[in-house]
């Protein structure tokens, strides 16, 4: 027995597979029950008598309707989950090129990935390190591990350009793309290639598992968000034939890539736009709910913010493409739901605005209503929605994940504005190792929001302590607590380990 | 002690004279207490002589605190002083014996258990200090408990709406300890104090040691547990039996044997015999058993056998309950709200979200003034924060079971409350309170990892509950506090033979009779305004002035009396108004 400290070599602590058929039936029942509760709330909310301050009311309704659409979309997506069974590749083992794009990551991060990729079973595998960092050290590592090494003279198109370049230098009928920190399981190809028995399948996506999820609050929260996506959402999207490529841990049919003209190089979420292009051409996608590669999530707040900025810029800029696309309606709605998710930060901003405006000016969105009435209509919808997230996410999506998402509201606002202004974002690689030290700049907008809410709440309490004021102070406190929970990891000098840091035993 | 016990009254009269005859009954407990003190002194001396002086201090100090607390709580009269002294000396002797015993005989108490014992002792002190006068329902039950057993059961069967277990316990208590305020509340005091070690054991078994300790700490200061420790009603028993039934069910589902099944069946049956709404709790547990059977966790045959025993135990109650229902229906009452509810959310209105919030606040933070409750209810957005913080949590089956048993009875009564609003009140699903404490303890001890954070959070929760307790007990605006004791006492201080007390509502009769011991004439206003003899006084005592019919009756009576008599004085104690007229 020996011990190692690389979290990627542990067994996964998460099961991507869905629930059994009985439990699935119960979940569907729960989801069906949500619809009348949502209707009950909205028929109450949308009555003319509820209009208080018209502008605030319009903002409230817009935010609530947006969130309701997202919620309905979530339930609809998850309700299409279908039982998974592994498909077997019956033909002789095919040739597969494994691409590992590299930019400036340390060799220590990349080498385990290359070594694990070289040992994949079930196909004739050629591993290629696609080095955009022009690192001699990386080249030496590739030589040492027996992997191919491809370096470009010009680094056009970031990761997409790098892969397109590699496509031109290779010829296997199947191509695996692995981010350089994602260590694949030996049976990665055995678990995925069977799906290509259907000639219309263009790519097979697998979960992007963060093996370092217990190395701090940021990776834990980020993993909570990932787990919800790669759990019920991805399984449901698969049921809708609308699973999109997520950039890593994915197997492509080369013919499909060629048909789409390779990865689009004018987007920062090239995988998302490539998926649209493939689905438009009639290709299909599959999702394998099994952890087949172990990667590293963002370990500090700056890395997380960078990742989210890239995703939100990319998805929001892809939104017009989605709406203009010739996709079948079901797929189009699925893509629109995914892309528009990155507008949800606006609703957080709207909700935070209400107590501030109420405490400063007395204006409020709703009129002629009591807390009893509001809660009577809202609480069942809200409560069951949270229950649905907990049940569907199998407990992976936690308050920590929610708080981090809420505290990142400003990223969505910023991305929307930049997208509307037509500013192009650059491709930023998510750092694979966390940085120690406080990162207040990464959460500065959220800190400003906390300061404003605190000041206004204090002002309100000093001015009056009637129930209406207390109610709005409580609302402000709710936002402050959520934002604080989200930004706290960035204010710590050292990441707070969630489990005792100890070496993990592995068999020798 | 044996010599004194032969004829304490005669002995006291012989030695001290007729002046002390009336305290003769206290001679036995007092001499017994002194005897125990003598024994304790020997034990302590022995401990000091053998190097156990430090341990002796650890026994003596808490007993001294306990004794002071008991004197404050009970020392209003000679009987109270005797009771306090007997309790203190018993505890002292037991503690001193434990430290003085030779090593091989001494029971080594783990530190954890010592803490729980200290918490239980602290909880007992709090419960003894938090006293208040007898409440209407208590007075009625004390009145019933003074009947013969058959008479009491008949009375229950024909005019009451409660199952008989607590009445039977009180019947025995009255015969053993008398009808004093403290005496009639002894069963509740014991149950509410026993809940502290019980919740520790349950939470430790269901979760872990830290959750057990936290739950015991919370239970020791929980306002509701303290409140109902001081009420000669069935609610403290309800909490204990519900907690026990849940704990035993968890043990069964973990593969527990006959002991767990017996514990469950007895606790569940006792729960139903304590309060009919206990059926909702037991029903929820049966649903959980059904799920367990479907999943193959519990063998159907074993469940059927033990359930049959439970049904057999509960069966004798069915005709009793049916008789009660028929009697109340024929009297036009149905299972209506007992007239003496007091401090309801919004009398007569179907419960809504606000009522649910209020009940939640009551369950965790206790009873408070209307102003405090309004402020607490206005803070409902913090409930959204709580709901959000539960995201992804509570998916272990024991937690789901605890949550279900805490919530489902309340939800059931909420639904029933749409027809009969009065039933949606937390004391009717008070079994949820210890379960809520257990869940809070679990959350406090498991959500954070660092011991400092856990301890800090636990301290903060205890502090909040402590504040709630202080406000509940000390705030005179608490609408649940009806100070009949002071009201009657003030009247008696000014009354002379031949004076009259008129009161409203009419159902105050038992509580006034409980405190009135000077032979004053009493009459409800609803039977007509009494006329005192010339030169004598009429005291008008009015309560429940939030109810229009009683407010109107009071106003009419005051108007009439003011016309005919001289208004000498007006007085006010919590929830009660007093007028003094002289003819």
Explain the layout of strands and helices.
The complex is a heterodimer of chains A (508) and B (583).
Chain A (H helix, E strand, L loop, with lengths): L1 E3 L16 H25 L8 H26 L15 E8 L4 H12 L5 E8 L4 H10 L2 E4 L6 H12 L4 E4 L5 E2 L3 H5 L8 E5 L3 E2 L6 H23 L10 E4 H7 L9 H11 L3 E4 L5 E3 L5 H24 L4 H12 L3 H18 L9 H22 L6 H9 L1 H12 L23 H20 L3 H25 L12 E3 L2
Parallel strand pairs in A: 2-3, 2-5, 3-4, 7-10, 8-11
Antiparallel strand pairs in A: 1-12, 5-9, 6-11, 7-9
Chain B lengths: L1 H5 L1 H9 L10 H23 L3 H22 L3 H23 L10 H19 L6 H10 L3 H11 L5 H13 L3 H26 L2 H13 L1 H7 L5 H19 L4 H17 L3 H17 L5 H15 L2 H14 L22 H13 L4 H9 L2 H9 L7 H21 L14 H15 L4 H24 L9 H11 L5 E5 L4 H7 L5 E4 L12 E7 L4 H17 L1 E8 L2 E7 L1
Parallel strand pairs in B: 1-2, 1-3
Antiparallel strand pairs in B: 3-5, 4-5
Helix pairs in contact in B: 3-4, 3-5, 4-5, 4-6, 6-10, 6-11, 7-9, 8-17, 9-10, 10-11, 10-12, 10-13, 11-22, 11-23, 12-23, 13-14, 13-15, 13-22, 14-16, 15-21, 21-22, 22-23
User: Quick one: how many beta strands of chain B?
Assistant: 5
The value of Rg of chain A in angstroms is 24 Å
Q: Distance N terminus to C terminus of chain B?
A: 54 Å
Helix content of chain A: 40-55%
Share of residues in strands of chain A:
5-15%
- What fraction of the residues of chain B are assigned to beta strands by DSSP? 5-15%
Indicate the overall shape of chain A.
Answer: globular
Structural class of the helix and strand makeup of chain B? mainly alpha
**Secondary-structure element order of chain A, as H and E?**
EHHEHEHEHEEHEEHEHHEEHHHHHHHHE
Oligomer: heterodimer
Largest sheet of chain A: 7 strands, mixed
Q: How do the strands line up in the largest sheet of chain B? A: 2-1-3-5-4
Strand order of the largest sheet of chain A: 4-3-2-5-9-7-10
